[in-house]
Amino acid sequence: MAASKDPLRVRGAVRAFALGLPGAWEDFPWGDGVVKVGKKIFVFLGPDDGDRTPGVTVKLRDEAAHAHAMSQPGAAPTGYGLGRSGWVSIPLAEGAPGADLLCDWVEESYRAIAPKRLIAELDAG
């Protein structure tokens, strides 16, 4: 994984990782990209238009991972009530985590959403 801190490159690396997970596919329900497994979103990719700060939103059930994500600069519980369910929005601005850590969080989010058969496929691969 590239160690680049360029926000759009980091977003691209996270997107590529997410799309490589079993059963993952990209959708644009509100204009910005999301990656789903089945009909459920496991990562919001945020904007890539250069007008707004790119970001990544993931669901983190593990308390340590959730606390670590929330400690990132600008991180916040996700709006629309999603934060109560463990969703964290992390802007890809100055001081943001690199793609490797974000991909770890994307995998955790995937595991929280994906059906057991796809998680088994991921673990077998």
Précis, in short:
The protein is of the alpha+beta class.
Can you characterise this structure?
- The protein is α+β, with helices and mostly antiparallel strands.
- It has one domain (7-124): Aspartate Aminotransferase, domain 1, CATH 3.90.1150.
- It has four helices and six strands, in the order αββββαββαα.
- The protein has helices at 7-19, 63-70, 99-113, 116-124, and strands spanning 24-27, 33-37, 40-46, 55-59, 76-77, 87-91.
- It has a six-stranded antiparallel sheet, with helices on one face.
- The model has no long low-confidence stretch (mean pLDDT 91).
- GO terms for molecular function: DNA binding.
- InterPro entries: YjbR-like_sf, YjbR/MT2646/Rv2570-like.
- It comes from Streptomyces coffeae.
List keywords for this structure.
six-stranded antiparallel beta sheet, 36% helix, 6 strands, 22% strand, 125 residues, Aspartate Aminotransferase, domain 1, alpha+beta, 4 helices
List the helices and strands and how they pair.
Blueprint (H helix, E strand, L loop, with lengths): L6 H13 L4 E4 L5 E5 L2 E7 L8 E5 L3 H8 L5 E2 L9 E5 L7 H15 L2 H9 L1
Antiparallel strand pairs: 1-2, 2-3, 3-4, 4-6, 5-6
Helix pairs in contact: 1-3
Instruction: Output the number of helix runs.
Output: 4
What is the highest CATH level, the class?
Answer: Alpha Beta
Largest sheet: 6 strands, antiparallel
User: Please, what is the average pLDDT?
Assistant: 91
Task: Name the shape in a single word.
Answer: globular
What's the architecture, going by CATH? Answer: Alpha-Beta Complex
Radius of gyration: 13 Å
Domain module tally: 1
Structural category is alpha+beta
CATH topology: Aspartate Aminotransferase, domain 1
- How much beta, percentage-wise? 15-25%
Low-pLDDT residue spans: none
Strands ordered across the widest β-sheet: 1-2-3-4-6-5
Estimate percent helicity: 25-40%
Distance between the termini: 18 Å
- Number of DSSP E strands: 6
